[in-house]
Amino acid sequence: MAIRESLHKIKSYFWSKLGINSASTVSLDTRIAAFLFRSKRADYYYYLADVIEGTKGKKSLLDIFLSDAKRYKTSARGKLSLHWATQFDRCGGSLSKTFQTTLPDEDVAALEALQESGGETALESALRDLAANTELVSKAKSIVITTSAVAIACLAMLMVFVIMMPTYIVPKLIAAFSMLPPEYYPSSAASLFSLADFVGDYWALIVFLFVAFIYGCTWSLSNVTGRTRAYLDKYGMAWGLYRDFQSIRFLSFLAAMIKRRGNESTVLLDAVEMQTIGASRWKRYHIDLMLQYIKRGSVGPELFATGIMDKTMEWYIADLIEARGFEDALEFVRDRLKERVLKKITTQSVIISWVVLMSSILLSSWLMFWQMAVIEDMRKALQMFLAQ
After folding, report:
1. How far apart are CA 51 and CA 43, in angstroms?
2. 210: closest CA among 160, 282, 168, 166?
């Protein structure tokens, strides 16, 4: 029973990382299709909005789903369209129940809220807002992944190089100078061989600690809060990068949620509270603080003083709210997030990548030159030994 519960927790964690609710009865095939479709979400939201606008509402969502299921057949989009058509018809047109478990929870919640805030006629606008937000966040994520890929590869190669020392490099050196007794080994060689012995004896622990360190840093990005997190956000570039990335998502969705649609608007309390759906522990911590401010009647610039964004952006928004009002300020900020925050994310990602890249290269070069020095010292020691 304990093993089964552990496996269930691992399964739930795995699916949650893919943005899929594991508690659903959705088939594995549909879940895989949902994962493959994630990168195409922004284009698909634009597509739905364009079709609704172009047909002036004469083609319903159910008709669109059925048409796509017939056109795309066994592709990820075709499988999902068939699933959405079935759910849409079965659940009476509920968007949250239609898209649940196949699209990220925050997307589903935002789409439902944006539609409800302006009625049926707001669906097209809601889709365009969601598409713009998804596109913005995807671009930020793409920047981070692209700039980090080479650095991560170099770091992995460094680890492989270190592991190869006791398994291949040092044994080859000892075999090449087998005529030289160990007591004649130069100090450089003795140090290298001692390091190789240490790595050979504790390589499993070294790999475990390395993986644990990477996992711990990754885990802390979305879980650590309070004063410790404030310190990490200020001095740890990776944590600051995560904060900026999340601030894009939060502000862009908040701006879309409170934007007036017709004669109605989403209440600020609901707009903030709704973002707890699918939120990390770190994001939920900041949202809870914001909700406390709102319930106390604080609905001005102090709402963003929780640390969910850096001071520069916080002060920038505060100035805009003072000059333009809350709703207009967020709308103005959203239109400029791409230029300001994405530029900062790009710069930080490049700096982090170069630090990791250069550190890996320098360490690898140091180990390589050390081995070359050992070869030369061993050659001289062998000559001296043979000359005796």
Report:
1. 12
2. 160
Neighbours of 276 (CB within 10 A): 15
Q: Are 63 and 14 in contact (CB under 8 A)?
A: no
Kindly compute the dihedral angle of the four CA atoms of residues 203, 205, 209, 210, in this order, to the nearest 10 degrees.
Answer: 20
Region 380-384: mean pLDDT is 89
| Residue 89: both structure tokens together | 């018809």
Selection from 87, 107, 110 nearest residue 97 by Cα? 87
- What does the chain come to in residues? 388
| CB atoms inside a 10 Å sphere around CB 290 | 24
Residue 106 corresponds to which amino acid? E
Q: Which of 107-116, 148-157, 226-235, 281-290 has the lowest mean pLDDT?
A: 107-116
Residue type, 64: I
- Cα distance between residue 165 and residue 228, in whole Å: 38
The string of pLDDT tens digits covering residues 42-93 is: 899 999 888 888 887 788 888 999 999 999 988 999 999 999 999 988 888 7
The CA R_g of the chain, rounded to the nearest whole Å, is: 28
How many Å apart are CA 4 and CA 124, to the nearest integer?
45
What pTM does this model have?
A: 0.72
Burial 97-120 (b: 16+ CB within 10 A, else e): ebbbbbbbbbbbbbbbbbbbbbee
| Cα 268 from Cα 52, distance rounded (Å) | 28
With a cut of 70, say whether residue 216 has pLDDT above it. yes
C-alpha dist (Å) from residue 271 to 168, 249, 254, 287, 294: 59, 13, 6, 10, 11
- Type and span of the H or E element at 292: helix 281-295
User: What is residue 351's predicted lDDT score, i.e. its pLDDT?
Assistant: 86
Smallest CA-to-CA distance from 316 within 299, 298, 334 is with 334
Contact call for residues 361 and 353 (beta carbons, < 8 A): no
Residue 261 DSSP code: B
Tokens matching residue 64: 């669109």
